[in-house]
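Hi all, long-time lurker, first post. I run a small reading group and we've been trying to get comfortable going from sequence to structure in the token notation. Rather than ask abstract questions, I figured I'd post a concrete chain and ask someone more experienced to write out its structure so we can walk through it together at our next meeting. Sequence below, copied exactly:
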Amino acid sequence: MERIQSKKQKASRVKTMLLTSMVLPGAIWFFFLRYLPMGGIILAFKNYKVYTKKPTFWNNLIHSKWVGFKNFKFLFATTDSWTYIRNTLAYNILWIFLGLVIAVAFAIMLNELTTKFIAKTYQTLMFFPYFLSWVVASYFVLAFLDPTRGLLDHYLVEHGMNAIDWYNEPKYWPLILTICNLWKNIGYSTILYLAAITGIDTSQYEAAAIDGATKWQQIRYVTLPNLRPMICILLIMNVGKIFNSDFGLFYTVPLNSGSLFSVTQVIDTYIYRTMTATNNIGMSTAGGLLQNAVGFVFIMAANYVVKKIDEDSSLF
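-- Answer (accepted) --
Happy to help. Here is the structure in token form:
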């Protein structure tokens, strides 16, 4: 009996070691690239200076002056504070709503396609932009909006209308940026929702069809209720990034045009421009820390609300 127990314990240890070896690369990656850099948070509370006598990071960090919350003031001390905070929140709220509705709609439509080749083709075409950098995407946008050779201006002139200097007209850019964001990211969300739909038990649809439910009723009473946990989880995660913005989109697509700052300046671009102008690493660290702190609060609040409504759909 003892020999059998010893063999079981040995087999259990071997299994544990194998599973640990599988987790170890990911754990190491998280430690060095996610947890270890958290020590740099201290830069948010220091006036970081480079000392020429011994310009090592640790020497600079130790001897830099402690300034407390002074580095956080630059985010709210300028007349542009309301503009970039408003832009960040407004774009994120709009894109969270549109991304949810459009992605779920596309996922349902793709699931209804009966020809697998066509469905796979659409999935690939929708997912492909997600892998492109915003630098490449900005050239696509430029091909349409270039004031001298752009396709849109060429079309307007050909039809007797005046060409538009797109990169100096702020009123068009909320729509342009929204289209760019959805074009690049909607495919990723669609694939996630489509995977959730394909995991729904087909017997539920069969039972609904036997009861006389139409296709729309099946979507309403079978598909959407089963998608609710996925929708809630993605919603919570997106709400956590509501104080962040896609730097590549807002910086490269408008070609860093100063005349568009009223609609393209967001927190991330403001932090970057402030850091490059002042060379103050402490300010940029403070900005990033504040964004993450606000994101954490929003995640906890969103999860709390979802948990009160439907506990099974909450993130934790």
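A couple of things your group might point at:
The chain has a mean pLDDT of 88.
The two ends are 43 Å apart (CA to CA).
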